[in-house]
Amino acid sequence: MRTSIAIFALLCAGLLTNEAAAEETKLAFNPTIVLDADTANEIDDLYAVVAALIEPSWNVVALNAAHWQTSHWTSPTSMEDSHRLNQVLTGHLQMQVPTKRGAPARMYDWGDQAQHSAAAYEIIKQAHNMAEGERLTVIALGALTNVASALFIDSSIADKISLFWLGSSYDFEKEIMGTTDFNCIMDTQALHYLLNSSVPMTVIPVNVAYDMQFDYAETAQRLKGTHPLGDLLVDRWTNHMDGSRQARAIWDLALIYAMSDPEWIETTQVRTSKDYGDRDITYISQIDGEQMYQAFFDRFEAYLAK
């Protein structure tokens, strides 16, 4: 996810009290997954969505569209743009994963704060479909509007979902959390609502995900001409508003591979401040970006070879 202000975020006032555990924690989650993505916002979402959909050990039961309507560079129909692109991706992969429209904008400020959408109700439905004692895994790659709205509508799903999210920044040396990155500011109401909930959260901050770097020349060489989807992934890079970059962070992909390949990451437990729930959150503190980078091409090529 785009985050041109990630560096500034590290300088923000501390919002967490760090009680980080010294030992590494391991990511555990149910492979039944709802994927929530603002796919049309940037380049990285497409790569992450593809990686998640072709992961053989996962069962992605729904692909939700998220908005980025709060951004200065938004389109008039940001959620709908993501929804249409989600359908293009599932079409190229010949998958029948349900695609759901999400909230067109952030949560409301008072009253019924939820954005009622097909995506929010899909999260609720899939959560209640889980067996007793099991949690639906929700992976959010953008604004948290759909997830928080689902929880606002039906608070009982707090015991039935686990959230994995790309967002915030965290300075592990200074023990400071920042919340001015792109995904946070797209819906601060949703962020606060989830942090003050009991929903288990695992977060990869943007300053860690930044290590997931792609080189344009190698990306074009390995994807262009392999399949129409490979062409789309390359064309998305060049046709984007800042398409002249020769390298870029593929932020969202870092979260997907952190979950599918936990041997490539390190994690720590952080205790939130009292105004943010006073509870533990798992933070991904380090990734092996090079392993992840090569894995995308190898797995994409292997999927096409089936």
Question: Which key features would you list for this structure?
Answer:
two-stranded antiparallel sheet, signal, disordered N terminus, Inosine/uridine_hydrolase_dom, Ribo_hydro-like, alpha/beta, 306 residues, nine-stranded mixed β-sheet, 20% strand, hydrolase activity
Give your account of this protein's structure.
This protein is α/β, with parallel strands linked by helices and 306 residues long. The chain has one domain: Inosine-uridine Nucleoside N-ribohydrolase, Chain A. 37% of the residues lie in helices and 20% in strands. It has 12 helices and 13 strands. The chain has helices spanning 6-9, 44-54, 78-92, 118-129, 145-153, 182-185, 188-195, 206-209, 216-223, 228-239, 251-260, 289-304; strands at 16-17, 32-37, 59-65, 99-100, 136-140, 161-166, 169-171, 176-178, 201-204, 213-215, 247-249, 265-272, 280-287. The strands form 3 sheets. Strands 1-12-13-9-6-5-2-3-4 form a 9-stranded mixed beta sheet, with helices on both faces. Strands 7-8 form a two-stranded antiparallel sheet. Helix 9 (216-223) packs antiparallel against helix 10. The chain is globular.
Q: Give the CA-based shape.
A: globular
Radius of gyration (CA) equals 18 Å
Taken as a percent bin, the fraction of beta residues is 15-25%
Q: List segments where confidence is low: pLDDT < 50 over at least 5 consecutive residues.
A: 1-25
Question: In the CATH hierarchy, what is the superfamily?
Answer: Ribonucleoside hydrolase-like
- Written as H for each helix and E for each strand, in order along the chain, the element string is HEEHEHEHEHEEEHHEHEHHEHEEH
